[in-house]
Amino acid sequence: MNGVIAINKRENMTSFDVVRQIQRKLGVKAGHSGTLDPNATGVLVVAINRATKALRFLEIEDKVYTATVKLGVKTDTGDIWGNELELHHNIPILDYEQVSDVLKQFVGKQTQRVPMVSAKKVDGKKLYEYYRENIEIKPRYTEIEIFKIELNYCRGDEINFTAHVSSGTYMRTICEDIAVALNTVGTMSTLNRDAVGSFTVKQALELDEVNEDIELISVKDIIPLPKISDPTLEFKIKNGHRISLDTKYDRILLDSGEFFAVYDREKENTFKSVRGLW
Fold first, then answer.
1. Catalytic residue among 17, 37, 101, 264
2. Nearest alpha-carbon partner for 155 in 73, 71, 84
3. Which residues, 6+ apart, have CB-to-CB distance to 138 below 8 Å?
4. What's the whole-number mean pLDDT along residues 166-178?
Protein backbone atom coordinates (compact mmCIF):
# COMPACT_ATOMS: atom_id res chain seq x y z
CA MET A 1 0.00 0.00 0.00
CA ASN A 2 1.87 3.04 -1.34
CA GLY A 3 0.40 6.27 -2.68
CA VAL A 4 -1.54 9.39 -1.87
CA ILE A 5 -5.10 10.23 -0.78
CA ALA A 6 -6.96 13.44 -0.06
CA ILE A 7 -8.86 13.78 3.21
CA ASN A 8 -11.56 16.33 3.99
CA LYS A 9 -10.27 17.53 7.37
CA ARG A 10 -12.91 18.58 9.83
CA GLU A 11 -12.76 21.40 12.38
CA ASN A 12 -11.15 21.01 15.81
CA MET A 13 -8.51 18.52 14.80
CA THR A 14 -4.88 18.99 13.81
CA SER A 15 -3.37 17.74 10.56
CA PHE A 16 -1.38 15.25 12.61
CA ASP A 17 -4.61 14.00 14.22
CA VAL A 18 -5.71 13.01 10.71
CA VAL A 19 -2.42 11.26 9.99
CA ARG A 20 -2.49 9.45 13.33
CA GLN A 21 -5.99 8.11 12.70
CA ILE A 22 -5.00 6.85 9.23
CA GLN A 23 -1.91 5.16 10.65
CA ARG A 24 -4.06 3.46 13.27
CA LYS A 25 -6.76 2.38 10.80
CA LEU A 26 -4.45 1.03 8.11
CA GLY A 27 -1.34 0.08 10.07
CA VAL A 28 0.85 2.17 7.74
CA LYS A 29 3.44 4.90 7.80
CA ALA A 30 1.83 8.22 6.79
CA GLY A 31 2.55 11.91 6.51
CA HIS A 32 0.77 15.00 5.25
CA SER A 33 1.53 17.87 2.91
CA GLY A 34 0.45 21.45 3.64
CA THR A 35 -0.60 21.80 7.28
CA LEU A 36 -4.11 23.03 8.05
CA ASP A 37 -4.71 24.81 11.35
CA PRO A 38 -7.00 22.95 13.80
CA ASN A 39 -9.89 25.35 13.15
CA ALA A 40 -9.51 25.19 9.35
CA THR A 41 -11.28 22.59 7.22
CA GLY A 42 -10.86 21.08 3.79
CA VAL A 43 -8.37 19.21 1.64
CA LEU A 44 -5.40 17.60 3.36
CA VAL A 45 -3.11 15.50 1.17
CA VAL A 46 -1.83 12.39 2.96
CA ALA A 47 0.97 10.13 1.71
CA ILE A 48 1.09 6.45 2.62
CA ASN A 49 4.26 4.37 3.20
CA ARG A 50 6.91 4.92 0.50
CA ALA A 51 4.95 7.87 -0.92
CA THR A 52 5.98 9.88 2.18
CA LYS A 53 9.37 10.36 0.49
CA ALA A 54 7.64 12.63 -2.03
CA LEU A 55 5.95 14.96 0.48
CA ARG A 56 8.40 17.83 0.12
CA PHE A 57 7.87 17.84 -3.64
CA LEU A 58 4.10 18.24 -3.24
CA GLU A 59 4.41 21.58 -1.42
CA ILE A 60 4.85 23.59 -4.63
CA GLU A 61 1.20 23.17 -5.60
CA ASP A 62 -1.14 26.15 -5.73
CA LYS A 63 -4.29 26.09 -3.61
CA VAL A 64 -7.88 27.34 -3.51
CA TYR A 65 -9.40 28.62 -0.26
CA THR A 66 -12.74 30.01 0.84
CA ALA A 67 -12.41 32.35 3.82
CA THR A 68 -14.50 34.72 5.89
CA VAL A 69 -13.29 38.07 7.21
CA LYS A 70 -14.87 39.43 10.38
CA LEU A 71 -14.55 43.21 10.32
CA GLY A 72 -13.98 45.41 13.34
CA VAL A 73 -11.75 42.98 15.23
CA LYS A 74 -7.95 42.62 15.17
CA THR A 75 -6.23 39.76 16.97
CA ASP A 76 -2.65 38.72 17.64
CA THR A 77 -2.98 35.61 15.47
CA GLY A 78 -4.92 37.09 12.54
CA ASP A 79 -7.94 34.89 13.25
CA ILE A 80 -10.82 34.92 15.73
CA TRP A 81 -9.15 32.28 17.90
CA GLY A 82 -6.43 34.69 18.99
CA ASN A 83 -6.30 37.40 21.64
CA GLU A 84 -8.17 40.59 20.80
CA LEU A 85 -5.93 43.60 20.13
CA GLU A 86 -8.38 46.12 18.68
CA LEU A 87 -12.15 46.45 18.50
CA HIS A 88 -13.82 48.93 16.15
CA HIS A 89 -17.54 49.55 16.53
CA ASN A 90 -17.97 51.74 13.45
CA ILE A 91 -18.03 49.11 10.73
CA PRO A 92 -18.36 50.53 7.19
CA ILE A 93 -21.55 49.70 5.34
CA LEU A 94 -20.54 47.07 2.80
CA ASP A 95 -21.47 47.52 -0.83
CA TYR A 96 -21.08 44.42 -3.02
CA GLU A 97 -19.52 46.26 -5.97
CA GLN A 98 -17.18 48.23 -3.71
CA VAL A 99 -15.93 45.10 -1.94
CA SER A 100 -15.55 43.27 -5.26
CA ASP A 101 -13.38 46.11 -6.56
CA VAL A 102 -11.24 46.00 -3.42
CA LEU A 103 -10.69 42.26 -3.81
CA LYS A 104 -9.59 42.68 -7.42
CA GLN A 105 -6.72 44.87 -6.21
CA PHE A 106 -5.15 41.83 -4.57
CA VAL A 107 -4.73 39.82 -7.78
CA GLY A 108 -1.15 39.33 -8.94
CA LYS A 109 2.36 38.75 -7.68
CA GLN A 110 3.19 40.51 -4.43
CA THR A 111 5.20 40.58 -1.23
CA GLN A 112 3.16 39.40 1.74
CA ARG A 113 3.77 39.88 5.45
CA VAL A 114 4.21 36.60 7.30
CA PRO A 115 2.01 36.35 10.44
CA MET A 116 4.05 36.36 13.64
CA VAL A 117 2.05 33.39 14.86
CA SER A 118 3.09 31.01 12.08
CA ALA A 119 5.32 27.99 11.54
CA LYS A 120 7.79 29.82 9.29
CA LYS A 121 11.31 29.30 10.59
CA VAL A 122 13.79 32.09 11.32
CA ASP A 123 17.26 30.99 12.44
CA GLY A 124 15.98 27.47 12.99
CA LYS A 125 13.10 28.56 15.21
CA LYS A 126 9.41 28.89 14.31
CA LEU A 127 7.88 32.36 14.48
CA TYR A 128 5.18 31.29 16.92
CA GLU A 129 7.94 30.11 19.30
CA TYR A 130 9.40 33.63 19.34
CA TYR A 131 5.90 34.95 19.96
CA ARG A 132 5.23 32.61 22.87
CA GLU A 133 8.56 33.57 24.45
CA ASN A 134 7.69 37.27 23.99
CA ILE A 135 10.78 37.84 21.84
CA GLU A 136 10.43 40.64 19.31
CA ILE A 137 11.88 40.13 15.84
CA LYS A 138 11.55 42.09 12.62
CA PRO A 139 8.54 41.29 10.43
CA ARG A 140 9.20 38.67 7.76
CA TYR A 141 7.90 38.78 4.19
CA THR A 142 7.38 36.22 1.45
CA GLU A 143 6.73 36.34 -2.28
CA ILE A 144 3.30 35.04 -3.28
CA GLU A 145 0.80 35.25 -6.12
CA ILE A 146 -2.97 35.54 -6.02
CA PHE A 147 -4.24 34.18 -9.32
CA LYS A 148 -7.92 34.86 -8.76
CA ILE A 149 -10.12 36.17 -5.97
CA GLU A 150 -13.92 36.38 -5.99
CA LEU A 151 -16.45 37.76 -3.55
CA ASN A 152 -19.13 35.28 -2.48
CA TYR A 153 -21.10 37.58 -0.18
CA CYS A 154 -20.79 40.52 2.17
CA ARG A 155 -23.28 41.21 4.92
CA GLY A 156 -23.12 42.96 8.26
CA ASP A 157 -19.55 42.67 9.48
CA GLU A 158 -18.63 39.66 7.30
CA ILE A 159 -16.99 39.20 3.92
CA ASN A 160 -16.76 35.74 2.37
CA PHE A 161 -14.49 35.16 -0.62
CA THR A 162 -12.71 32.44 -2.59
CA ALA A 163 -9.07 32.81 -3.64
CA HIS A 164 -6.79 30.78 -5.89
CA VAL A 165 -3.28 31.36 -4.53
CA SER A 166 0.29 30.14 -4.76
CA SER A 167 1.70 27.80 -2.16
CA GLY A 168 2.95 29.67 0.91
CA THR A 169 0.20 32.30 0.85
CA TYR A 170 -1.16 33.28 4.27
CA MET A 171 -4.92 33.64 4.14
CA ARG A 172 -4.98 35.34 7.56
CA THR A 173 -2.84 38.14 6.16
CA ILE A 174 -5.13 38.52 3.13
CA CYS A 175 -8.12 38.83 5.46
CA GLU A 176 -6.40 41.51 7.52
CA ASP A 177 -5.30 43.39 4.40
CA ILE A 178 -8.81 43.35 2.94
CA ALA A 179 -10.10 44.99 6.12
CA VAL A 180 -7.37 47.65 5.97
CA ALA A 181 -8.31 48.38 2.36
CA LEU A 182 -11.85 49.03 3.64
CA ASN A 183 -10.51 51.47 6.26
CA THR A 184 -11.06 49.22 9.26
CA VAL A 185 -9.51 46.18 10.93
CA GLY A 186 -10.48 42.56 10.46
CA THR A 187 -9.60 38.98 11.21
CA MET A 188 -10.21 35.58 9.62
CA SER A 189 -13.20 33.78 11.11
CA THR A 190 -13.49 30.71 8.84
CA LEU A 191 -11.18 28.94 6.41
CA ASN A 192 -11.80 26.01 4.09
CA ARG A 193 -9.23 24.64 1.65
CA ASP A 194 -11.24 23.78 -1.44
CA ALA A 195 -8.38 22.42 -3.53
CA VAL A 196 -4.69 21.52 -3.47
CA GLY A 197 -3.39 21.28 -7.01
CA SER A 198 -5.54 18.64 -8.71
CA PHE A 199 -7.15 17.47 -5.44
CA THR A 200 -10.55 19.00 -4.70
CA VAL A 201 -12.74 18.78 -1.64
CA LYS A 202 -15.38 16.95 -3.71
CA GLN A 203 -12.87 14.16 -4.33
CA ALA A 204 -11.61 14.05 -0.75
CA LEU A 205 -12.56 11.22 1.61
CA GLU A 206 -14.02 11.61 5.04
CA LEU A 207 -11.92 9.99 7.74
CA ASP A 208 -14.58 7.37 8.46
CA GLU A 209 -14.45 6.31 4.78
CA VAL A 210 -10.79 5.31 5.04
CA ASN A 211 -10.26 1.54 4.92
CA GLU A 212 -7.89 -1.02 3.42
CA ASP A 213 -9.84 -1.04 0.13
CA ILE A 214 -9.33 2.65 -0.70
CA GLU A 215 -7.65 3.40 -4.01
CA LEU A 216 -4.39 5.30 -3.65
CA ILE A 217 -3.01 7.65 -6.29
CA SER A 218 0.53 7.06 -7.55
CA VAL A 219 3.10 9.68 -6.62
CA LYS A 220 4.16 9.79 -10.28
CA ASP A 221 0.73 11.03 -11.26
CA ILE A 222 0.60 14.02 -8.92
CA ILE A 223 4.09 15.47 -8.51
CA PRO A 224 3.78 18.85 -10.26
CA LEU A 225 7.03 18.57 -12.20
CA PRO A 226 7.83 18.09 -15.89
CA LYS A 227 8.30 14.35 -16.48
CA ILE A 228 10.68 12.48 -18.76
CA SER A 229 9.97 8.78 -19.25
CA ASP A 230 12.84 6.58 -20.47
CA PRO A 231 13.06 2.85 -19.59
CA THR A 232 16.70 2.73 -20.73
CA LEU A 233 17.70 4.91 -17.77
CA GLU A 234 16.56 2.37 -15.16
CA PHE A 235 20.05 1.44 -13.94
CA LYS A 236 21.20 5.05 -13.60
CA ILE A 237 18.02 6.18 -11.82
CA LYS A 238 18.07 3.18 -9.46
CA ASN A 239 21.67 3.87 -8.49
CA GLY A 240 21.42 7.67 -8.33
CA HIS A 241 23.83 8.32 -11.21
CA ARG A 242 24.19 11.70 -12.87
CA ILE A 243 22.40 11.86 -16.22
CA SER A 244 22.82 14.04 -19.29
CA LEU A 245 19.50 15.50 -20.47
CA ASP A 246 18.42 17.96 -23.11
CA THR A 247 15.61 19.90 -21.43
CA LYS A 248 14.79 23.52 -20.61
CA TYR A 249 13.64 22.61 -17.10
CA ASP A 250 15.94 22.78 -14.08
CA ARG A 251 13.99 20.24 -12.02
CA ILE A 252 12.27 17.20 -13.49
CA LEU A 253 10.75 13.85 -12.57
CA LEU A 254 12.72 11.15 -14.36
CA ASP A 255 10.77 7.91 -14.78
CA SER A 256 12.07 4.56 -16.04
CA GLY A 257 8.98 2.59 -15.02
CA GLU A 258 9.57 0.86 -11.69
CA PHE A 259 12.20 3.40 -10.65
CA PHE A 260 11.66 7.15 -10.68
CA ALA A 261 13.34 10.13 -9.05
CA VAL A 262 13.50 13.92 -8.89
CA TYR A 263 16.54 15.32 -10.67
CA ASP A 264 18.01 18.85 -10.57
CA ARG A 265 20.25 20.53 -13.12
CA GLU A 266 23.80 20.56 -11.77
CA LYS A 267 25.49 22.29 -14.69
CA GLU A 268 24.72 22.68 -18.38
CA ASN A 269 23.00 19.40 -19.40
CA THR A 270 24.13 17.40 -16.37
CA PHE A 271 21.44 16.47 -13.85
CA LYS A 272 21.94 14.93 -10.40
CA SER A 273 19.49 12.85 -8.40
CA VAL A 274 17.75 14.70 -5.57
CA ARG A 275 15.49 11.93 -4.28
CA GLY A 276 14.53 8.47 -5.40
CA LEU A 277 10.77 7.98 -4.93
CA TRP A 278 10.08 4.31 -5.68
1. 37
2. 71
3. none
4. 95
